[in-house]
Amino acid sequence: MRTFIRWLWRLLVTILLVVIVLPLAGSLLLDQEDYKSAISDWVESRTGHHLEIRGDIGIRPSLGLILYAEDIRLENADWSDHPDALRVARVEARVSIRELLRGSVVVEHALLREAGLLVERDSSGKYNLSLGGGSSAGALRSTAAPGWLDIRSVTLEQVRMQFFLKWRNWDVQIDSATIAAESPDTPVSVDLNGTLNTVPVTVNGTLGTIASWLQRRKSDADLTLVAAGEHALRAVGTVGDVLVWRDLDLELDGGISRLRDITPWFRFRPLDLDSIQLSGRLVQPGSIATMRLEDLTGRAGYHGIPLHASGSVGRLVSLAEIQVNVRADDDWDISGLPLGDVTRLNPRIGFDAVLTGASYRLHMDVSRLAVTAAGVTVTAQGQVENASRLWGTGLPLQLTVQDIQGLGKALGRSWPASGGLNGNAVLNRDRSGFVLEDLRMQTTGELLALSGHGRIDGIGREPVGSMRISGSVKSGFFARNAWVPALHPKVADVEAVWRLAGTRHNLAVENLLLEFPGGELRGWGDIPDLESPGALTLGLEGTLWDARTFGSAHQQEWPELPELKLAGMLHGEGAGNWRIDDVEVFGEEGGESLSMAGNMALPRGRAVPRLDVKAVVSPESLAPWVRERPAGDRLVEHLEPVHAQFGLRGGAEGAMSLEGLRMTSTWAGAELVVTGEVSSLNPMRGFLDVSLSGRPAALPDFSRYRLPAMEAVNLSFVMPLPWDGEGLEGFRLKARSQGGSLDLHGDISGLKPLKFDNMRLVLEYRDLAELVPGQWKLMPGNPFMMNALLGMEAGVLAADGSARLGESVIEGTASWRAPGDDGRTGLNAALRVDQLDMKTLFHPAEKTPRVFSDNPLLPAWMLQSDGTLMLEIADYWGRTTHLRDLRLDASMDGGSVTTDFEAYLGDGVLSSSIRLPKGGETRVKLGVKNLPAESLRALSKGRAFTGGVIDADITLRGREQSMAGLVDRGEGQIRLNIRQSRIYGKALGTVGGDLVTNFLSAANLFDRNKDFADVECGVLYLDIGEGKAVTRNGLALKTDRVTILGGGEITFPGEKIDIYLTPKAREGLGISASSIARVIQLGGTLRAPEIEADPKGLLATGLNLGAAILSGGVTLVALGLFDRFHANSDVCTIARGEQELGEIDLLKLPESKTDRR
Fold first, then answer.
1. Nearest to residue 728, comparing CAs of 706, 756, 702?
2. DSSP state of 30
3. CB 84 within 8 Å of CB 117
4. How many CB atoms lie within 10 A of CB 1028?
């Protein structure tokens, strides 16, 4: 303020002298141009500066005399870069004529418009304007107003004053100013509007009188300064000399809402103080250098922190002799400070200090400084040598962090659990800014054992620093931090250098040794920005010497691997995204090897590898994994080393996959190839394509099943993943033996238990007799082919398809269930055959000693199975028969079996049924219905019969399960009838030979002109029981020439025949009775019957007749048409029991040998 008023007063006095006195005198003596020169000379003699008036100058009469001048310029000092020190667009003064006539000059009003004043100093401290050619003080004294000059009112418009001083530059812009007084002895009012260094200011109030100003007497002052429209400071008191602004005694009181609003007034950016209240006494007993501030009290807010100050400033201009106490309340919340993320910690502060000093050099004695926040404590106590600039601070600091992870959470950052931290340093300041010297840090707790020592320069500006860090990271650190789970490290030794440059700080890792279960890893490199700690570059080298130990640490069972050497370059990409480039892994030992090459991304701790892997693994190393699978022991036992290669690929959300997987090996002498794609390892998804080619020596020996040995096997399947012994896709088994091939393919949906559906089986063999030699007495040369769809579920094997055996085609469905705990199997089948020619398929069956076989009625597998069977054969060709529409149905349940058989022979129907209940009575029933007799021509290999039909029923029951057993120890009956047929003698001869021919000739069944006999009827009725088949007169034959009636028995088990026949010629046919034997006895066995002598010597030719009747065709012999007869009786009705014999002369047979029939 003093500077502004002083220079403003100099400006006014000089200009008024130039404009009023000199023009007034010049106007009386000279013309205008002459007194411009006179004025310039006078000013230059007084100031040493040339004055130029470029505009008009003169006097204009009005209410008074108006003196004016325009475009005035005052030359600047020669050392200045600016040409003019003063420019005035117009200046005028209205002088009272009345007062002028009285001998005094009274300026009623003065105007200064659009003026510019420049005040500056050179390097030696010399001002550009002295207004007297000497020092500024002398100039000021010489410009005192003369006693005859009286100025009543001054108006300033658009006046700018610029001061370029040693310690501060000021730019004063006066938009308008009025300084006025009604008389020399009334108070001078001041009303000024403008800007001070761009800050709007107004000055209002009173300042003495014109008389006190001009007479250099003490003036009363009451001025109010308002800055930026709201910050007011009032000064009330006295000014000893207004013109030189000295001998001040002013009481100051005021406030500032925001210090930042008047920032342009300061040489430096002031603290962001607000709510400032200030009071004190401003005293200046002499020159301005003696100005001091007494009884200073003040308070202010700093981001919500109330600060208090009290004291004094002995020399205000030079800021010397300062004694001010500064205090902040204890435990005050400082979260309002611009501390960035630290504000989240709700920090609190306590502060006490004393400011002392001189010549702008302040000294601060800090008795207490304490900041606490979220477990962090910073304390300081000491002295600051130059508090004005905080130069050479030398303030010791102590830092304590109780929990680094908790601090990170409070700041919203994910910092690892690492315990606490202690540190200390000396806070200093040099030209670069604040400095932390002798900075030492030490971790606390059981997780980290790290220490560091370094220095940070330029704090508050562009900080630069470094710290060397060394120590170890304990296992507890890795256990508590989820971002390092991959290795489960035990301990890590670290040597690194931390560096700070501006807002970026980095870490140069000189040596990192990471020990983990089963191996170790070394690293070196840089973390360029710790604000983004994921952005790093580290070289890695290491060794994995025990894979099993490493796997155990991950709760996994790893195979034995050779010692592996590891290498790569770890790069961080920020935001927790890392990658490892140039990955190299290699190990080799004892025939095993493993190599990997590629890169691996690590986004947010997840592994996303892209590695090409090659390995050679021994079966022993695979054993822990393989033996858990079905047949794993056998697989390991016969497996050679496995050569594998694949691409290990990672994906989103931690997914892992295998591409281009290929494994090759030899299993039991056969080539094993496994290929596939694994789209995910966790959870396991994908497939393996397995192929086995060759003749594996470990395959079962099929010879024990009477099957030929496999010469070549090709087994392939696709194993879906995950696979725990479950299904196989695309299963295919192709095998080749010397005479055939097998192709089985389809999908297997389960192995435990075995389950599949639509499995195609194609079996081809050139000769079925070679495939099952000697087992079924097959004829050679019959190829076999089978094509079927197989399915299996719940232990039941089902088949649907066809088979070709020779020229026969078998179609249908079948199912088989493996034996259960009770040893029983399940069997169901429905089969259809177009034609079946047994002559071409099987050798003739060997004749057994007995006609009634002792082989079981049913095979054992039927008794041991449960289920149903159905067989349909359109055409069945046996050796002597041709059956049509054959159907066999069987039911098996718990050891009980029932069978039903039906077929057509010619126009007749053959049927049979067997009922075999478990533990019960066996029942067998055989039947022939309407069988044309000529259908039996195949039995004699010729035309034995023409015409006629045959009906037969055989029933047996008993506890036995064979035909021999039933006739030996069971019960039953045989019923056979033949009617209206013709027998040919020559055809019979082909069966019986000479024996038959002689018999028929003896019985006169045929004569020389007629080689056949017409049969009207034939009957055989036998009852079976007690080991015999007995009939009394149940055997009858009636032809056009002879009637035969007979009886007897067949004794079992020897099947010995003891049957008597009585033939007799028909009356009226011209046959001599002497030519026919009276009684014929049939003996021998059923397999070899014989005609025996007449038991009473009555049969001279009986031998021939008996043999002829016995051999009258295999059918007649087998059916035993023998018993008593009478020439003209209906012997058939007698044999059937439909008619009694009456008075007919019969051969009396012993009662002990025959029953009724």
1. 756
2. S
3. no
4. 18
Q: Measure the N-to-C terminal CA separation of the chain; round to a whole number of Å.
A: 167
Number of domains composing the chain: 3
Assess contact for 648 and 609: CB atoms under 8 A.
yes
Strands (E), 651-795: 656-667, 670-681, 684-694, 712-721, 726-736, 740-751, 754-765, 784-793
In the numeric block, the tokens 């890795």 are attached to: 478
- Read off φ and ψ for residue 260, nearest 5 degrees: -65, -15
pLDDT of 468 reads: 93
Decide which of 126, 154, 180 is a domain's last residue: 180
Residue 656: domain span: 618-752
- Buried b / exposed e along 448-461 (16+ C-beta atoms within 10 A): bbbbbebbbbbbee
| Tokens representing residue 598 in the block | 């590629």
Q: For residue 1131, what is the enclosing H or E element?
A: helix 1131-1135
Q: What's the Cα-to-Cα distance from 783 to each of 456, 530, 768, 770, 799, rounded to whole Å?
A: 98, 83, 6, 10, 21
Residue, of 1137 and 480, whose pLDDT is higher: 1137
Upper half-sphere CA count for residue 448 (Cβ side, 13 Å): 22
Tell me the sheet residues that pair with 893. Answer: 896
Domain-embedded: residue 98 = yes
Residue 670 lies in a domain: yes
1103 lies in some domain: yes
Contact residues for 518 (Cβ-Cβ < 8 A; gap 6+): 544, 545, 546, 547, 548, 549, 550, 551, 553
Q: For 583-609, how does the pLDDT look when each residue is reduced to its tens digit (9 = 90+)?
A: 899 988 888 888 999 998 877 656 788
Per-residue pLDDT tens for 529-584?
766 666 678 898 999 988 888 878 767 667 677 889 999 998 877 666 778 899 89
Strand segments (E) across 985-1073: 1012-1025, 1028-1039, 1042-1051, 1056-1065
How many degrees, rounded to 5, is the angle at CA 968 between CA 965 and CA 969?
A: 80
Contact 396, 380 (CB under 8 A): yes
Choose from 54-58, 321-325, 787-791 the range with maximum mean pLDDT.
Answer: 787-791
| C-alpha distances out from residue 692 to 40, 139, 664, 666, 674, Å | 122, 118, 10, 9, 9
Of 719, 752, 785, at which residue does a domain stop?
Answer: 752
Give me 814's structure tokens: 């079948």
Contact 325, 311 (CB under 8 A): yes
SS3 content of the chain, % helix, strand, coil (to 5): 15, 55, 30
Find all residues with CB under 8 Å of 667, minimum gap 6, and list them: 635, 638, 639, 640, 692, 696, 698
Is position 904 within any domain? no
Q: What residues form DSSP beta bridges with 875? A: 835, 884
The residue count for the chain: 1157
Measure the CA–CA gap between 1004 and 1064, rounded to whole angstroms: 10
Determine the residue type at 393: T
422 token code pair: 């202690």
Candidates 246, 241, 185; CA nearest to 210 is 185
C-alpha of 648 from chain center: 15
C-beta atoms surrounding 613 within 10 Å: 18
Burial class (CB in 10 A: 0-12, 13-18, 19+), 170: middle
**852-866, 981-995, 1060-1074 — most confident range:** 852-866
Record the tokens describing residue 437, joined without a space: 């010297």
SS (H, E, C) 430-494: ECCEEEEEEEEEEEECCCEEEEEEEEEEEECCCCEEEEEEEEEECHHHHHHCCCCCCCCCCEEEE
Q: What is the DSSP string of 1051-1068?
A: ETTTTEEEEEEEEEEPTT
pLDDT(17) > 80: no
* Strand, helix or coil for residue 3: helix
Q: Where are the alpha helices (DSSP H) in 852-956?
A: 860-863
| Residue 1075 near residue 1066, CB atoms below 8 Å | no
| 20 φ, ψ (degrees, to nearest 5) | -100, -55
